[in-house]
Amino acid sequence: MSVARKPIATGSDWNFSVLERFDEELARLADEYRLDTYPNQIEVITTEQMMDAYASVGMPVGYHHWSFGKQFLAVEQAYKRGQMGLAYELVINSNPCIAYLMEENTLMMQVLVIAHACYGHNSFFKGNYLFRAWTDADSIVDYLVFARKYIAQCEERHGVHAVEQLLDACHALQNYGVDRYKRPSPISAEEEVRRQEEREAYLQTQVNMLWRTIPDAPNGVSPLPGSLHSEADPLGLHRGGIYPSEPQENLLYFIEKNAPLLAPWQREIVRIVRKLAQYFYPQRQTQVMNEGWACFWHYTLMNRLYDEGKVDEGLMLEFLQSHAAVINQPGFDSPHYSGLNPYALGFAIFMDIKRICDAPTDEDREWFPDIAGSPWRDTVEFAMRNFKDESFIQQFLSPKVIRDLKLFLIVDDDQMETLEVAAIHNERGYRRVREALSTQYALSVREPNIQVVEAAIRGDRSLTLHHVQDSRRPLGRSVYPVIRHLQQLWGFPVHLVSMEEGRVTRRYQWPIEEENKEVS
Amino acid sequence: MTYFIDRRPNAKHKSAVNRQRFLERYRKHIKRSVEEAVNRRSITDMERGEKVSIPTKDISEPVFQHGPGGARNIVSPGNKEFLEGDKIRRPGGQGGGDGAGEGGASNQGEGDDEFAFTLSREEFLEFVFDGLELPNLQRKPLKSLEEIKMVRAGLARDGVPSRISITRSMREAYARRIAMRAPIKRALKEAQEALAAEERKDPVLRNPARIVELKAEIERLEKRIEAVPFIDTYDLRYHQLAAQPQPSSQAVMFCVMDVSGSMTQNHKDIAKRFFLLLYLFLEKHYEKVELVFVRHHTAAREVNEEEFFYSRETGGTIVSSALTLVNKIIEKRYPAGQWNLYIAQASDGDNWDDDSNICRDLLVKQLMPQLQYYAYVEITPHEHQSLWHEYETVAAQFPERFAMRQIVDAGDIYPVFRELFKRRLSQEQ
Fold it and tell me: What's the superkingdom here (chain B) (predicted)?
């Protein structure tokens, strides 16, 4: 059966009214597929504005810092030399969902990008549990405005240099600015402004409470001598356990609340960096899913447009070429190989879920008894809502996708003379490959596990952290600059101990001189 | 629900501040690159920016990372021949292996250890001229008309219609209307209240005459309120302009160059570059600097910039011809009382023997007393000749204002230029 083709527009030029009509069609189809999205705000920008957007890591409003300038220069250089094409689109997790479209895009590109970003990513932001738990799309833009203003004020009052150094230190620790197991309260700009001043005053008193040397008032337990007399500590000064009572993984939070010497404005800036890190936290963990989901939907929606005769063959062919380039996965030995392509992997898995639902084979029935033959729309929705990359791969990477991508597992152990192929795409290997790939995307494995274990509040005020080492993988050389930054924030010596299976494997500290003293 | 917004007309250069911060932070590195670039470049090249590289380790933003070592699992795509249990030599190990495993074939081309980016022309010049200043720039008496700038100076009741301040006029009108209506309104209210009180009375007790009278009064007052004009000539306010003399310093720079036969093409290139630097420097730092180009062989001629740098002419050398011409131009067009005068001369030091002391006399007696600064560069690898020695005596008499340096090859130009125009602050201290 052939459809009478009445394309909305042909050729590669676009204008706003054409885009609006395409968007209407896409919105109608998205609605048909029950995609739940924030309202869209589509902004057409120039190349240079796109480079700006890149440089600010996709924040529509950013505070000033040299590292963003560096980013900009790097992007500009790569772009001008033709080493890198700019992304056709950039989308921000906000409500309304802001998507940037480049003016140079062809008509096909614009339609593709609207489908990809404004319906794909947008619905992912709104639906995925990590985004729901960690970000507040309604207030992020307001919060960014607040942050920018606040930091600009601090620069006026305390000097650009002082603020810059503080930000450098905070940026070094920003991947450690999240409580993984606690849901944060949503951030709201008005709230922040309203509470910020009282917080300054209050926080300072809290810190003083922690460091004060005057004993507690005698309500209940007295820390003064008497009970529990000990030879080593006759006055009981060191009683009361260590602080903090449990290891803290949120280093920035710990610094914000406990660093003894920070001024209130400095604490506030630590907090801003921490809050922004928290906003990006879900994105770091859902790259495969997020891109896969967006590709899945642009592919589905574009095909529907074609089936309904809204686009012509020319546009469709251009789309297919571009789509194939996006989800291309070169092999490990190709000169173009640069790791697994999250678009390719995510798209393959979502398409395969759909296939398993629609036309399950015996293998699928064995591997996915729950979803084989179920309605595909509900199943992909479930997968999108309730997983992150790590668990998504663990749950949904099928033998077929492993075979299609010809995934294999290599063990690289520096104690062995050779690398070993531990599993390939066969019956015996599927589970191991899947397990290993899932782990490869686990944030806890990708980044060293580092926690605050003790602040010596009754001693030299030094801060001790533990690095829980895994598979003998040591910390990189950047550890010294990072703990130097940490020491700047804390104000007293910082010790970092790498531990594996209860044994200390390496100690780091800052300042370094102290170490030399101990040695000599 | 979708909104389309066209952001293209919006401000560009959103990253300008961040970019500046970056350049500021790595000033030292960038300056080194810029200096190298200036020495390397040809004259026509000064108009563009420059690619600058900084070692990546100097600008890295450290975060906790895993280092090499230990055991790790890597899943890769595109298996062709491997079977479970295969052993593979490490890539980069003996014999080079077949490149399997992690990071085998990533970063090609540009090395990872340099962070490269491009400075714009403005940024480039900013770095080239950083810390340089025209020496002895003095405040001279204000030149007549040109120096006066009209500035806004409050408001006045009179003026031309084009300078009406609408907001202020309306505000005045509003105030006047309130002021004029208030007493009438008060009287009106009283009358209305009296009328109401009258009408509330028992019909028997009412005074009909009083009611008529009050009604007439109300009508009269309402008319008066209406009669208050919405805007009146008294209300009009005009922006006032006042002439403010602008303290400003103006300078003229004479570029004097020898184009005689003894100057080889190479000499000329070097001289050209020196002047070009000078020219860019002036253009950048001082808006009110005029340039006069004088080229000479046996006779001197004032030429335009284009001709100065790019036309060809040869002959013998009489330096004093140029100095005389400069002196004439100064007398005619740039009286020393109103202008800061600078002369920069480039030559290979060749001169007719008996001309050098004429030059010295010209300088000492006529030019130097009026000048702020005289910079002389001699482009020669050879022994100095009479001109240099005569100039040395001038330098001894005016150590603050007369500077001379020797340039041997193109690489010397930039350092010499910097030395000549270094901020004088440090010298004074």
Answer: Bacteria
